[in-house]
Amino acid sequence: MPRPDKTPRPKLTRTSAFRLTLLYTAVFCVSVLALLAFIYWSTVAVIERQTAETIEAEIRGLAEQYRERGLGRLIEVVRERSGEGGDDDNVYLLTDPLLNPLAGNLSRWPPDATAQGEWVQVTVFKSADGKTEPHMHQARTFTLRGGFRLLVGRDMSERQGFRATVIEALAWAVAVAVALGLAGGAFVSRRMLRRVDEVSGTAQRIVAGDLSQRVGLTGTGDEFDRLSESLNAMLDQIERLMTGMRLATDSIAHDLRGPLTRLKGRVELALRRPRDTDQDREALADVLAQTDAALAVFDSLIKIAMAESGVDQAELQPLDLTALARDAADLYSPAAEDQGMSLELKAGDAAWIRGQPQLLAQALANLLDNALRHSPEGGRIALRVTRDTAEVEVSVADSGPGIPEADRRRVLQRFVRLETARSGPGAGLGLSLVAAVAKLHGAELSLGDNSPGLMVSMRFPAVSPAGDGVDQTG
Amino acid sequence: MRLLIIEDDPETADYLRRGLGESGHNADYAATGPDGLVMARDGDYDALIVDRMLPGLDGLTVIQSLREQNVGTPVLILSALGKVDDRVRGLKAGGDDYLVKPFAFSELLARLEALVRRAKSDGHVATALKVADLEMDLLTRNVTRGGQPIELQPREFRLLEYMMRHAGQVVTRTMLLEGVWDYHFDPQTNVIDVHISRLRAKIDKGFDPPLLQTIRGAGYALRAPS
Predict the structure, then answer these.
(1) Which chain B residue's Cα is nearest to A326?
(2) Where are the domains of chain B?
(3) Residue-wise burial string across A191-220, b where 16 or more C-beta atoms lie within 10 A, e elsewhere
(4) H-helix or E-strand spanning residue A229
């Protein structure tokens, strides 16, 4: 069915709910029809059989009278039954072989009846309450010994009345079903349309630029609420990403424009100066170093963006965080000792998690870089890996100045450097990458007080070495 | 070295050719995948520098076709794609090393030299390494200099082994991080220098001449002064 490209508000009759209701109504009508047809046919069959049996019994009785007591008695009996006191619903006719009526309430022998024992339909006009109406009779004809013919029939208008009743019931049932179906369809459709309109209205306001809009919930927890909840969760995520992106572009503008401007200035200055090999080489080395710093910022930003956009789950593999921490401690401890600090690894047995080894190693390296940078001489840095059945925690604690509680959330954002740390190297991306890596691994990142110093910890869900679930063995 | 650069960006290619030329190497240049494939197959090169994104035929396909045709020339892949699985895919396609753009020229040169050297020495498995009077037995894990035993931590042993396997060549910090620690990123703290100076204290202190040299702006080299 062709659909117009734009339907700002679909008509009631175009909604799927309405169509569904119509379909249900149709199915309901068909079942009512089938049910009534079944009742009708089975009832009619019973009535017909009973009629036939009654007639058969009567004919048998009459034939017996004739056989035992002769024609006179038969005529007498037929008269008796078809006369004033007899059953009004029955018709009888007894004729001689030349079809002259002898007794009965039928005026003449039906022309198509051969009296071979077959069934015929006889229409008799009866008057009741001053009206003359045709009554259909089901009759059986029969030839007696001596060529006399007998016809016994029963009024079938009762059956026709029953048929009329059934048809009437059918018509009513269908009419009521259709009416209810249409009304119900309209009601349900209008309700659904209202909810859909609400969602699409919200969507349109969001498209218009207000990303803070959310779809309202009715609180019934129905399918629309569930859909709205999913949509709202999606919108939350989009808003977070948008905010993150805006922050990133702002930060790039701020933190890369600076170094690049200095770089440009350095080159311009060197070019204006008279040629001097030593000074020129020094300027070039400086330019190279600044370029490397800018590229490092780019590199970190790309890594954060990749970690935040989520790595393919297939890239996460079971890995031993203890081994990873041991490698990191091994790499950093000579540097720490050189700066008069101690780096201590506190780790026990293998601690398995699902992760991307390079990103995790980089996160640990960033934390150790930070700890080395902020700890005073003689400071102590501890790299710990602890595990229980459900979780593995890795933490880096230093004895530096720490981070005031109020700033702890803020430092996880990109390019945020506390005033106290402005003078040192770094672009303020280290902890944001740690945060992104933690999020990617479903790990809980927390910044705490090591009094004195900072303690950063990540709690990962533990897995068994095969990587298929929580380790239950210990 | 006779090298082939397959790279679609003429400026990068020019910069590479000039740099390699100044370092005393001879580099040819192909701008598209199909051209590069033909030249690599027919020319006798010591190593290939292949960019991943190429017009006509992408870099990995070029390398795969070469390997299928039994061309074993060592390949250094250049790529702007630096994710771990990009690297894995590159090495699986038949690349021998992977360098992410932007890179330092000294890094590229060091890696090329390591690749060519490795390709030439392929075939025999060394059980002992020797640089001047510094000797390393890879089976017993004994290290001696001038006959005197030197005690090394396991990681120091691996660091020295890496340096000895690349004896005479410039080894960059990044190569050491990759080769010894399997870290495919550069930490901000200069951790490698400290490891090198500790190793130097063990193998050079009290011996003459010093073997472990720092190459300014590039890295380190383990070699007997000529």
Answers:
(1) B181
(2) 2-121, 128-222
(3) ebbebbeeeeebeeebeeeeeebebeeeee
(4) helix A223-272
Residues A365, A352 share a domain: yes
| CA A368 – CA B76 distance, rounded (Å) | 32
- Domain assignment present for residue A57? The answer is no
Residue A437 falls within a domain, yes or no? yes
Rounded-to-10 torsion of CA B216, B220, B224, B226: -30
- Among A290, A306, A302, residue whose Cα is nearest residue A252: A302
B2-121, CATH topology level: Rossmann fold (3.40.50)
From chain A, the residues in CB contact with B188 under 8 A are 365-366, 369, 373, 425-426, 430
Strand duo B97-100 + B75-79: pairing = parallel
Is residue A402 less than 8 Å (CB to CB) from chain B? no
Whichever domain contains A319, its CATH number is 3.30.565.10
CATH number for the region B128-222 comes to 1.10.10.10
Instruction: Give B-chain residues touching A366 at CB under 8 angstroms.
Output: 188
Do A303 and A324 sit in the same domain of this protein?
no
Q: Which of B173, B189, B190 to mutate against chain A (most A CBs within 10 Å)? A: B189
- Tokens 């600044």 locate to A290
Q: Backbone phi, then psi, for B21, in 5-degree steps?
A: -60, -45
Domain for residue A154, yes or no? no
* Lookup result for tokens 């009654």: A54
ipTM score assigned to the predicted complex: 0.83
Q: Which residue of B has its CA nearest to A427?
A: B188
Range(s) of the domain holding residue A305: 223-309
Q: For residue B185, which residues of chain A lie inside 8 Å, CB to CB?
A: 303, 358, 361-362, 365
Q: Minimal Cα distance from B181: which residue of A?
A: A327
Instruction: Give contacts of B182 with chain A, Cβ < 8 Å.
Output: 327
Based on the domain organization, do A354 and A438 belong to the same domain?
Answer: yes
Residues of chain B with C-beta less than 8 angstroms from the C-beta of A374: none
Same domain, A281 and A302: yes
Cβ contact (<8 Å) for A312 and B189? no
Domain-located, residue A289: yes
pLDDT tens for chain A, 474 residues: list them: 444 444 455 566 777 777 887 888 888 888 888 888 888 888 888 888 888 888 888 888 888 888 888 888 888 888 888 776 666 778 888 888 888 888 888 778 887 777 777 778 877 777 666 677 777 788 888 888 788 888 888 887 777 777 788 788 878 888 888 888 888 878 888 888 888 888 888 889 888 888 888 888 888 888 888 888 898 898 888 887 787 777 767 767 766 777 788 888 888 988 888 888 888 888 888 888 888 878 877 777 777 777 777 666 667 889 999 999 999 999 999 999 999 999 999 998 899 999 988 889 999 999 999 899 888 888 899 999 999 888 999 999 998 887 887 777 777 765 555 544 444 445 567 888 888 889 888 899 988 888 888 899 999 999 887 645 444 443
Using a CB-CB distance cutoff of 8 angstroms, which residues of chain A are in contact with residue B194? 334-335, 337-338
Among B104, B183, B189, beta carbon nearest to A335: B189
Distance from CA of B177 to the nearest CA of A (A): 9
List Cβ neighbours of A184 (8 Å cut-off, separation of 6 or more): A21
- Same domain, yes or no, for A362 and A343? yes
